[in-house]
């Protein structure tokens, strides 16, 4: 088995790995990037055709590299984001090898050894930049239902992929909400299982959500001040960007459901939590509006009030009298889309640094193991750590730490 040696090895060739390479080059640190398939692979193969990026164009940037656009307040297609990352890779010109999947990482007497098919690389430092969306999470609730088409959101492509009939979308986060909207516009009858969620406005008082987060400094919130919730905001960049309103979905024909608890003989049992989940999402939404209002008043900003943002539609029948069971056959549900999120997959790291939940122990990306780092994870050091516009700050801090070790 051939073994090479490098000062610093970066595992992952997405935006985080490319940004890490950029920061290492700026500091003259010899390194190599390994990517299991292609640059920005998950953007290429794990996104649906109609996905629109949830960040407005003006906010999309990587270190020393702006996102080209004609509409600052618009939202871009996946293809545009892939092209941007490819252009950034050309700008950075990283020492990268694609098609190399690291299957094991272990320690040795001088540092680390990364193993892959046909060889291995020894490195004094390793940066794991494989992203936060590694392992699609899909419950086993409906595994015993043959003939039911089931797909995780990471493998969903478009409504034409699905057989005729109604569609059940499980999970009302950003992906589940945007996919449900797409199904609705395609004329498909959709059932949407709504769990706990944090609903936020797409725009308020004339500005986008992310403008307010930046203006108020919320996106700089350090991880030490993070609240107990681990939910991501329910927002959409589709069709020019609009606020997700589950009552609007219901008014347009979507049947809202609570959390699915069991499934027997084609009959789903539904938890009595839909009303509570919607109410909690509404409360989160209203709290954010109040925070912005207080900020505007305290600063004397010229952003007119936005009463339309507070209009609430009447409760639809599926909310005022929630369903407790759903018979898949009776409702002609032929497809299920699991928009149930992702987990980390770091079991290939043969070093005892993962906690009971499979997450690495680290402080702002610096692990408990000297020389081993993580980049691109949600809330790595602050709220915007996993944003395209935020990964560069974390990469710079890690590059400084690596430089200091020399």
TrEMBL record:
Keywords recorded for this protein, A-Z: Oxidoreductase
GO molecular function, one term: flavin adenine dinucleotide binding
Positions of transmembrane segments: none
Pfam families: Pyr_redox_3 (PF13738)
UniProt cross-references to SUPFAM superfamilies, sorted A to Z: FAD/NAD(P)-binding domain
Top-level division of the source organism's lineage: Bacteria
Protein name per its UniProtKB record: FAD-dependent oxidoreductase
